[in-house]
Specification:
The chain has 1 helix and 35 strands. The strands form 8 sheets. A 5-stranded antiparallel β-sheet has the order 1-12-13-14-15, with no helix packed on it. The protein has a 5-stranded mixed β-sheet with strand order 2-28-29-30-31, with no helix packed on it. The chain has one domain: Methylamine Dehydrogenase, Chain H (7 Propeller). The protein has about 400 residues and is mostly beta strands.
Length: about 400
């Protein structure tokens, strides 16, 4: 279903200003995102700095539960994988480091409140924000604190890293209505970009710019080097953008609380298509394939639409809302629902090929690497599925 609504005129007027200023243009970037992960890694929330939610490799036809790791509270944080280790936050106020093969706990780092944000790993450092208002940089091997940075409110989104001429930078948002850029090595502030409401998602890198949505109902495009606004696209009253924006082929994909999921052309600064029934919001971030785009909705469905025109190809109904974000891996799409089930679907047809009943709501988004699926749940467990010689259903618990 396509609709443009009354926003077209406002977007067109804004585009005129952008063309005059030359703010948005397709040019060779001078700052570069940190290198994309290998097939055995998933080092950030959506797997890469563009937030596309696409994993390399293939999944087994019948994944088996390999191990679980127990924390002391619900896991809303989404896990990441790098260097044979898994990192995930928990509502028990800790970031947990776990051995990828065995599920054995390696270390825990305590903060002063829940960690619902997904961590990000780059080099020998793990970066994560906490509801306590601090953003932390930790030694990947030991969990020792390297530095921490205080914001004015909780941090619930993930971080994105990029390389500049001056060194590596880390960018993240806060509920204090700001986007921060810090020196990744020292934690010293480089710039701060102000919005008019919470910043909840993980920012994406596009050319020399950062793209992210805010609860001020705007899509923001900000220069990497100085943190200056390049454009702000107003999505309309109460169209809060709470999820992360995916960027692919100069197109931005995201949902909002104005009950629509949209594609915007970043070079033109205009809406290409809009999808939705006008009654249900979209919190889920997209998985962006070559021809198809996948995202969950509060209508309890995982949707698959065409990249080109937003026309629906299929929809898969669950029993509760889908706020978590899907991952596309080969010919399969993986996601969790608040109905307590982890699903794997045929990406072309939407046919269910496998599912697992966890029995507790899932708001964590999956990490997919090395042929394995990792996901947290409200029962406080991190679940890991893949190929194994173990009998189906057998568990190994770590801590």
């Amino acid at each position: 279903m396509n609709r443009r609504g009354d926003r077209i005129l406002a977007l067109a007027l804004l585009m005129v200003g952008m063309l005059v200023s030359g703010a948005i243009c397709a040019q060779e970037p001078t700052a570069k995102p940190v290198a994309s992960p290998t097939s055995s890694e998933w080092p950030s929330f959506r797997g890469n700095p563009s937030q596309t939610g696409v994993a390399s490799g293939r999944l087994p036809a019948e994944p088996r539960l390999l191990w679980t790791y127990a924390t002391e509270a619900a896991i809303a944080s989404s896990p990441v994988i790098e260097g044979g280790r898994v990192f995930v936050g928990s509502d028990d106020y800790h970031l947990h480091a776990i051995d990828f093969e065995t599920g054995r706990g390696l270390w825990r780092f305590a903060t002063e409140d829940m960690i619902e944000a997904p961590p990000t790993v780059s080099g020998d450092t793990v970066y994560v924000g906490s509801t306590d208002g601090f953003f932390y940089a930790l030694d990947k091997k030991t969990g020792d604190l390297r530095w921490k940075f205080e914001t004015g409110d909780k941090v619930q989104g993930g971080a994105t890293l990029f390389e500049s001429a001056e060194g590596r930078r880390v960018v993240f948002g806060s509920y204090d209505s700001a986007l921060y850029c810090l020196d990744a090595k020292t934690g010293e502030p480089v710039w701060r970009y102000e919005t008019e409401n919470y910043v909840n998602g993980t920012p994406a890198v596009w050319n020399d710019q950062i793209v992210f949505g805010g609860c001020d109902a705007r899509l923001h495009v900000v220069s990497l080097a100085e943190g200056q606004a390049q454009s702000q696209l107003d999505m309309g009253a109460e169209s809060y953008i709470a999820g992360s924006v995916g960027v692919d082929r100069d197109q931005a994909f995201f949902g909002h609380y104005g009950n629509a999921f949209v594609r915007l052309d970043l070079n033109k600064g205009e809406e290409v298509w809009s999808f939705g029934d006008g009654r249900n919001a979209f919190f889920s971030s997209p998985a962006i394939g070559e021809d198809l785009v996948y995202f969950g909705g509060r209508d309890k469905k995982l949707h698959c639409v065409r990249f080109a025109d937003g026309e629906e190809v299929w929809a898969f109904k669950t029993r509760r809302k889908i706020d978590a974000s899907p991952v596309l891996c080969g010919d399969r799409v993986v996601f969790g629902s608040a109905d307590g089930r982890l699903y794997v679907l045929n990406a072309a047809t939407g046919e269910e090929t496998w599912s697992y009943d966890i029995g507790q709501s899932i708001f964590s988004s999956p990490a997919v690497a090395g042929g394995r699926i990792l996901i947290g749940a409200n029962d406080g467990l991190l679940y890991v599925f893949g190929e194994s010689d173990q009998k189906s259903g057998e568990k190994k618990r770590g801590r």
